[in-house]
Amino acid sequence: MKETKYKGIYEIQKNKKRYLYTKSLDNISYFNEQIKNGYREFDPRRSKLAAAIIKNISLLPLKRNQDILYLGAAHGYTASFISDIIERGMIFCVDFAPRVVRDLYLICEKRKNMIPILANASHPEEYEKRITNVNVIYQDIAHKEQVNILLKNLKFLKKKGHVLLAIKARSIDVTRNPRDIYKDVEMSLKDKLKIIDKKVLDPFQKDHCFFVCQNK
Ligand SMILES: C[S@@+](CC[C@H](N)C(=O)[O-])C[C@H]1O[C@@H](n2cnc3c(N)ncnc32)[C@H](O)[C@@H]1O
Questions:
Q1: Residue 152's domain spans which residues?
Q2: Which of 14, 19, 44, 105 is the least buried, fewest Cβ under 10 Å from its Cβ?
């Protein structure tokens, strides 16, 4: 197991294939993922973050002790790996679907650095009193209005903080070429954020693009 160029992300290469891992905080497999000597396998077919790492995104702005606002945490798959990386930081995990938040609660009971929040990310006032300002906003909500929803949440981002954004083209417009949608997203973000890199995530995540941005 060797650490990649991204801090906290490890890999093994086998038969020309790369397998990603994080160092588990508690040695528990929450999603049937393999654990090897305390390292949990992080699957690019299940997480857009892992796919962006395999695609060699130029910056992964996740560090120990950072605070993260995660919009669209669902059952907590990707959030649990971010939890491994940030250790003593805190992840505020927002999702509006009660069914998935129920599963998320079970992980958050075990992980001291994850807080579940059942709320709509379109209405940040629902959770503004329950969170602090954060170093990173991670957004993966597969919603037509996802860029506007992100912009509404930027008030929680610290100066020079980063945004990790997974865009699902088909949720925005099924009839258009995904690459045109990604260009439009970039234009809408540019006013508020500096775009550091973007990676199309096919074939791991079909019709998805991942953006890394920084607060101006
Ligand atoms: C693709 S899933 C997220 C998967 C997760 N990020 C992962 O990698 O483990 C998208 C999630 O966004 C949530 N979602 C969509 N719109 C939302 C909104 N306006 N506010 C909060 N959650 C939302 C959905 O309930 C769903 O659980």
A1: 54-215
A2: 14
pTM: 0.97
Residues 137, 39 within the same domain: no
pLDDT tens per residue across span 84-95:
999 999 999 999
Select from 150, 167, 162 the least CA-distant residue to 216: 162
Task: State the average pLDDT over residues 180-185.
Answer: 94
Structurally, how many domains does the chain consist of? 2
Pairing of strands 35-36, 39-42: antiparallel
Q: Are strands 134-139 and 17-23 parallel, antiparallel or unpaired?
A: unpaired
Pocket test for ligand 1, best of 32, 140, 144 (most atoms within 8 A of CB): 140
At 199, which CATH number? 3.40.50.150
Nearest CA to ligand 1 atom 4: 74
